[in-house]
Amino acid sequence: MLYFLGELAGQFSALNVFRYITFRTGGAIMTALLFVFLFGPKIISTLRLKQGKGQPIREDGPQSHLLTKKGTPTMGGLMILSGMIVATLLWANLANPYTWIVLGVTVGFGLIGFYDDYLKVTRATHKGFSGKARLGIEFLIAGAAAFAVSLLDSGQNATAIGFPFLKDLTINLGLFFIPFAAFVMVGAGNAVNLTDGLDGLAIVPVMIAAASFALIAYLSGNAVFASYLQINHVPGTGELAVLCGAVIGAGLGFLWFNAPPAAIFMGDTGSLAMGGMLGAVAVATKHEIVLAIIGGLFVLEAVSVIVQVASFKLTGKRVFKMAPIHHHFEHLGWTESQVVIRFWIIAVVLALIGLATLKLR
């Protein structure tokens, strides 16, 4: 919305600053942060009143969680989503189709997560609605977004994927691009969802990944920088830096209330939405494989669950003491704060490796 003030720069030169993506990204960060700070307490008190006993805690999880986390309200993703949406609508260029595509995936996944959280709270169980139905709806949303992205780029890279550390290697997937891109978005959404199991564990890696992709989107959308770095130039994707900034600001505000002991949990409402957002930005900027590096922590969490389930079904034995893997380390004697902070460190290292692919080619 404020982007259009830049059109008045001819009459008021100071308004030219609203044309700069960097300025509007900073504005989105601060707007989302202030929104969550101001309205967060009211949202938390309302959710606590509506939910009563709060999020149901898994009885087969770490026993300490039954004592320390019982009664804590969930659906904190509503705080993140509301702050992000307000900041994006205020600071982003609303004429940019990539903005609406990524917002559509984020809100769509958030609604799925909200319904899942609603069922868990009302039924007083940690199980939501049918996994198959949930995945089916996610793939429909992601598939529509992937198709829209493929239509926006009329060049030869419209349905191609690039590879990190390699200059000229791209593979044109053709029609297979849509299911591949949809898988990236759905996989990212559910991987973040699996990571959200301890206070602050998911939101900080999400912010780290969002900051990394804000830079990638800015560089990919700029013809000069993209040519210099020899990465895919995707016109228009620079605007996604503003949306990523909104996620960072909303995430910082949420972390204030989610820091241990958490006053509220993100829930599927937030984790599915944030993962879907990261996947959609990665698809739009043609950095799907780099997402697997920057979001390697989320990949590790998801793989640990897959390995655990497969091993138990095939051999009757478990590889980990408990999955996702952050619970495994809790069973090994790590305190919650040790697990969370050490996983944050891993997320930072992986983000640096992912960003290094921009230059090391």
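The above is record 1. Record 2 follows with the same two-line structure.
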Amino acid sequence: MNEKDVIKEARPRMDGAVDDLRRKLATIRTGRAAVSLLDSVTVDYYGTPTPLSQMASVHAPEPNMLTVQPWDQTQLGAIEKAIRAADLGLNPSNDGKLVRVPVPPLTEERRRQLAKQVHDVAEDHRTAVRNVRRDANDRLKKLLKEKQISEDAERDALAEVQKLTDSYIRKVDELAKSKEQELLSV
């Protein structure tokens, strides 16, 4: 194991944090109907919590309407209940064949709450990136202590890890900023 390996292992972990942020931001609604809005919904399917996407097809036929077509018609009520319980501010209704989920326009207060939520999610992911940096730095210090790398190599590798961290923190900030702008624009 050398300093290049440590940096090589840190990059995919930081990529993972940014990808997870993208997924989490996609589930925060912006006033427009998006299929990803219901990604976080889990339905109690015969006693097993099951993601909605694994038991129904979700479509956005209109900009302010989602439809959920379950593969098992007996689960209509459970799906409707799960969407209500997901705390997304949505009020689904079912017509016996599918669940219609109107996506109401966001109020100014709700937009601010969601922007705060975006900020909190982004901060969690910045922390995740910093934790990867800390792990990489610890491993580099351990390699130096075990005399597997020189002090110069350690110093250069620490600087490289910091550059990598800064670039990923910038990506997190850009994603959060664009989502906030999307939320706050009417």
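Helices lie at 3-26, 76-85, 108-145, 151-184.
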